[in-house]
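Hello, quick one for you while I still have it in my head. No rush at all, and the record is pasted right below.
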Amino acid sequence: MTEEHKEETRSAEQKQGEEAGEPEASKKSLAEANDKYVRLYAEFENFRKFAARQREEQSKYANENLLKDLLTVIDHLELALQHSSNREASNALSEGVELTLRELKGVLEKYGLAGIEAQGKPFDPMVHHAMSQIESEDAEENTVVKEFRKGYTFKDRVLRASLVGVARTRKPAQPASMESEDVQNTAAKTGD
C-alpha cells in the first residue's frame, strides 16, 4: 500500500464516520422540531378555546348595560304606583302604570333579569347593601327587615344590590341596681 492509497482510505473512513453521524443529528433535529410543533399546536388550541369562552361570555352579557339603565325606569314606575294608589281619582292611571310595569318586568325576565328577594331573608353582602340597622324584637339579628330599593340579577351576575335595613336586636337594659353594683365593684378594685 502506498502512502497515497493509505491517505485515501483514511479519508474514505472519515467520510463514512461523518455520514453515519448525520442521520443521528437529523433524527435529533427532527425530534426537536416535532416537539416544538406539538407544543405550539397545544398552545394554539388552548388559545382558541379561551377565545371561544370569551366570545360566549361577551355575547351572554351583551345586554347588561341596557338592563341596568332600565332598572331606573322600573323604579320610577313603582314609585308612581305607590303615590297614585292613595288617590281614588287616579285609578285609571294607576292601572295603566301597573300594566306597563308588569309588561316591562315580563320582557326583562324573559332575557334573564330576576329580582333579588330580600325581605325576611338573612343579610347577604353579595346581594344586599345595608343602609341602616333597625332595632327589632320580631326578627332575628342580621335579617333584612326593610327594603329601600329592590336589587336585581342578570343571569348569574348581580346587576344592582338591594338597599336594605338589617335587624338589630335590642340589648336588654341593665337594671339600675346592677349598674350601681358595677360602679361599686369598680371603685372597690381601684381603691377609691
User: Anything to note?
Assistant: The two ends are 126 Å apart (CA to CA). The longest helix spans residues 3-60.
